[in-house]
Design a protein that fits this description.
The complex is a heterodimer.
Chain A (H helix, E strand, L loop, with lengths): L2 H13 L8 H8 L1 H4 L11 H22 L8 H4 L3 H15 L4 H22 L8 H4 L7
Helix pairs in contact in A: 6-7
Chain B lengths: L1 H4 L3 H23 L2 H17 L10 H22 L7 H4 L8 H19 L3 H11 L5 H8 L3 H21 L7
Helix pairs in contact in B: 2-3, 2-4, 3-4, 4-8, 6-9, 7-9, 8-9
The chains are: A mainly alpha, B mainly alpha.
Chain lengths: ~140, ~180
C-alpha cells in the first residue's frame, strides 16, 4: 500500500467517527468569556503611569533605606533625638534670624522665642543640687 | 490576534467561531467524554483570551490553540488516571446523523466504536499526531509545533500510529475503505 493509499484508508477510518456538534450553550459561554473574565490591563514600565509607579517604589525604598541606615536629621532617627541642648538652642536662634524679615507673624514668633529662650536659660542655670533630698536617697535613714 | 491581545472581544469571538468546532472535536476524541471536552474547550479559549499577548506570530493560531487544548486534555487524562477511572465510549458513538438507515446506523456505530477503540489504545502522542493529521488537517510541521517535537519525530509517530491502528482494525474485522 502506498503512502497515499494509506492516508486515504486512514482518512476513511477516522471519518467513520461521529461528528461532534458544538452546543449553543457552550458557544455562548465561550463568547461571554471576555465579560466574565475581564483582562487586567498591564502597564508597561516605560508608560507614564508605569514609570510613576516605579518612581513611587524607588521613593518608598529610599525612605526605608534611610530609616534603616539611621540618617542624621531624618524623622524618627535616634540621632535627631540625641542632639545636644546647645544645638537645639542654635537651631532656635537661626529660626529667629530668618523670621525677622516677616511682619506680624514673625514678631509673635520672636516673642515666643524670647520667652522660651529665657525660660530655657533659667532652667539650665538653676542649681538643682539644692533640691535633692539627700535624706530620702539614703536607704530611708533619716526619713521622717 | 493582536486585536485579541489588545482586549478586542469581537476579535476574540471571531477566533472562537472559527476554531471552536475543531478544538471541541479534538478534545472529544482524546477524552471521549462530552462534559470534559466542553470544559477543556472553554478553558482553552479562556487561556487564549488571557494569554493572547504571549502568542508568537511564528506559529499559526490554530497550532497554538491546539497546543493549549492538548495540554489541558493531557491534564484531564492524568487526573482521570490518578482516580483510576476507565474511559467510556458511549458518549462518542451515539451521535450518528438521523438520516442514516437503521442497518447502516448499526454498522456505522460498530465501525466508529472499533475505530475509536483502536485510536484510544494508542499512546497519547500517537493519538494526537494521528488526529491532528487525519482529522484536523494540520501539516507535519504544525503537528511538530503542537507536540513540541521535530518533524522527523512526527513522521515516526505517524508511521507507528498508522501501523498500530491498521493492525487493530484488521483484527477487529473493520475495513473502512469498503
Amino acid at each position: 500500500m502506498t503512502q497515499t493509499d494509506e492516508d486515504r484508508w486512514l482518512n476513511a477510518a477516522i471519518s467513520a467517527l461521529p461528528e461532534v456538534p458544538v452546543p449553543a450553550d457552550l458557544r455562548r459561554r465561550i463568547a461571554e468569556l471576555p465579560i466574565v473574565h475581564p483582562r487586567k490591563a498591564r502597564l508597561p514600565w516605560w508608560s507614564p503611569v508605569g514609570a510613576s509607579l516605579w518612581w513611587s517604589l524607588c521613593g518608598a525604598m529610599g525612605i526605608l533605606c534611610g530609616i534603616y541606615l539611621d540618617v542624621p536629621g531624618q524623622a524618627g532617627s535616634s540621632t535627631a533625638e540625641s542632639l545636644s541642648l546647645d544645638q537645639e538652642v542654635e537651631t532656635w536662634d537661626l529660626g529667629v534670624a530668618t523670621d525677622n524679615d516677616d511682619n506680624a507673624v514673625s514678631s509673635d514668633v520672636l516673642a515666643q522665642e524670647e520667652l522660651f529662650s529665657a525660660a530655657f536659660a533659667s532652667q539650665l542655670s538653676t542649681d538643682w543640687s539644692d533640691t535633692w533630698d539627700d535624706a530620702a536617697l539614703s536607704d530611708g535613714e533619716g526619713a521622717p | 490576534m493582536k486585536r485579541v491581545a489588545a482586549g478586542d472581544a469581537r476579535a476574540f469571538r471571531q477566533i472562537c467561531d472559527e476554531h471552536l468546532p475543531a478544538i471541541l472535536r479534538f478534545a472529544t476524541r482524546l477524552l471521549q467524554n462530552d462534559a470534559e471536552a466542553h470544559d477543556v474547550a472553554q478553558e482553552t479559549f479562556l487561556k487564549v483570551w488571557l494569554k493572547a499577548s504571549e502568542y508568537q506570530p511564528k506559529a499559526r493560531i490554530t497550532t497554538w490553540i491546539h497546543s493549549i487544548a492538548r495540554h489541558l486534555s493531557i491534564d484531564r487524562l492524568r487526573q482521570r488516571q490518578s482516580r483510576g477511572e476507565t474511559v467510556s465510549l458511549d458518549n462518542a458513538v451515539d451521535q450518528a446523523p438521523a438520516s442514516v438507515e437503521p442497518g447502516q446506523l448499526l454498522e456505522r456505530k460498530w465501525t466508529a466504536e472499533r475505530v475509536q477503540t483502536a485510536i484510544s489504545a494508542l499512546p497519547e502522542r500517537q493519538q494526537s499526531a494521528l488526529l491532528l493529521r487525519h482529522e484536523q488537517g494540520l501539516s507535519q510541521d504544525e503537528i511538530a509545533q503542537v507536540l513540541d517535537t521535530s518533524v522527523d519525530a512526527v513522521e515516526s509517530l505517524l508511521k507507528r500510529a498508522r501501523s498500530a491502528l491498521r493492525e487493530q482494525l484488521e483484527l477487529g474485522g473493520v475495513d473502512p475503505s469498503a
